[in-house]
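re: ur question from yesterday

yeah so i grabbed the chain u mentioned. its 135 aa long if i counted rite. heres the sequnce exactly as i have it in my notes:
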Amino acid sequence: LTLAPEAIMARTTTAAQAKATAAPRFVLHVTTGRTTAGEGTVVTEFALAAPAPNPTASAATITYDVPEATTVTVAVYDLLGRRVAVLAQGDVAAGRHTARVEAGSLAPGVYVVRMTAAGGGAGTFAATQRMTVVR
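ran it thru and got these structure tokens back, copy pasting raw so excuse formatting
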């Protein structure tokens, strides 16, 4: 999974950069896709799973399935509709993908995780899941 520089918010840093600078707002760990969703199961449809754990006080993992190579955007929004993080943006391979959002710097409350994908033969896909941040 390749993310364009503009896909990552300005305050997002790596762990090494975080030690050298002020605490980052988000630290994203993205695992690239694989072709199966489990033992012998092939991904056949788009899906966005609920963040786990939910509610979260520190970090949540978001899993999404893509049945064919396509352009995907996975972003987190607050309830006012402001985008607070972009977890994935760009072309991805078919398979199961995960993204991790560090929620420790987010204000407590409810957020919306939204996935959109432009699937060639499958049409356009959009899904949302709720994520709650607690202290």
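noticed a couple things. DSSP finds one helix and ten strands in the chain. also The longest strand covers residues 109-119.
anyway ttyl
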